[in-house]
Amino acid sequence: MKYDVIVVGAGLAGISAARYLADKGKSVLIFEQTNRIGGLCKEGHFKGTRFSIYGPHIFHTSNNKVWDFLSRFTNWNFYTHTVKSYCFGKLWNIPIDYDEVGNKEWDRKKIEDALYGDYTKKMWGSWYTILDGSTIKRVSQKGGPKWDNRYFKDKYQAFPANGYDEMFYKMTDHKNISITLTSDFDIKWVDRATTVIYTGRIDKLLDNMDLPFRSMGFEIVLNGNFPWSDKYGVINFPRDFDFIRAHSSKILYQQDTKEDVVVFEYPGRVGAECYPVIYPESKELYSKYFFKLIEKYPNVIPAGRLGRFEHMDMDEAVQSGIDAANQMLRGGKNAEM
To answer: CA-to-CA distance for 19 and 306, rounded, in angstroms?
Structure first.
């Protein structure tokens, strides 16, 4: 069967692109290499408790168009995200509440170094010393009024009321969308006249795998716990323990259930490729691959966190998918750098 567009990857960017194009009358085939759609937002269930397999995914945005787009497919449970960090035997607010720390300059530096510096070093390991400044700033969120302890400042903060799985199934429930699961995509199968929106690694598409990504291992513990897991949804651990973050599914997703599912995150373990490692040389390497892509596969538009080699919040991934779709609709090929 002939399709107008092929979308590679059924994560947030890919599904958003597919649905946007389907609504415009385009026939779309989605290739997904795993056995389920949803990317890193995949969910599991344990005795009535819904949990995220790959760590917490708090949707937050001030982009009205993205919010309205997703709101077609889900109702929302609004949630104000606050983060605590465990260090020196107690919990601290993130961003730091300097009234809590005190006025001594040494105390302030000690806490900043631990809660921001040590967290970043633990997250990125040996990459820490060469990271792009934008990466460091994503972790080091300082300042703000002392009465405002929200981690995100966006207009909308929420979870899909019935979970991400249901939202994704509704997004792909369209007569113009077909999905093939457990399928490795091969660009050689594709007619050059067919646009491909590609949300995977473009170095893989070009038969290389040398763009650097930071992987995360996720340990799911049924009926698990961590310090203060009965009170807080997410706690950072910049110094103590091997894991860097833990979340309580029961608290985070506001579930009135007896059982909890705790997910621990271990940076650098073999697992999902979660974060591009961005520094001058890796950005230059991505640019080289991008221009090779233009030359070899002018019908391919990269999108999403992997395809664009960028840190993206969830709303940015949605927007990236929509932008790629609009690029196709305008008759363009590769998205601009």
So the answer is: 20
Contact 240, 115 (CB under 8 A): no
Domain with 174, as residue range(s), is: 5-43+58-78+162-209+277-329
Alpha helical stretches, state H, the chain: 12-23, 64-71, 98-101, 105-112, 119-124, 133-139, 164-172, 202-205, 249-252, 280-296, 304-308, 314-329
**What's the number of domains the chain is made of?**
2
What does the pLDDT look like over 62-111, one tens digit per residue? 999 999 999 999 999 998 888 899 999 999 988 888 888 888 888 889 99
Instruction: Confirm whether pTM is higher than 0.85.
Output: yes
**pLDDT value, residue 320:** 98
| pLDDT surpassing 80 at residue 144 | no
Mean pLDDT on 134-161: 72
* Distance (Å, whole) CA 140 – CA 120: 8
Q: What is the Rg, in whole angstroms, of the alpha carbon atoms belonging to the chain?
A: 21
β 28-31/5-8 pair status = parallel
Look at residue 48 and tell me if it is in a domain.
no
Cβ(187)–Cβ(248) below 8 Å: no
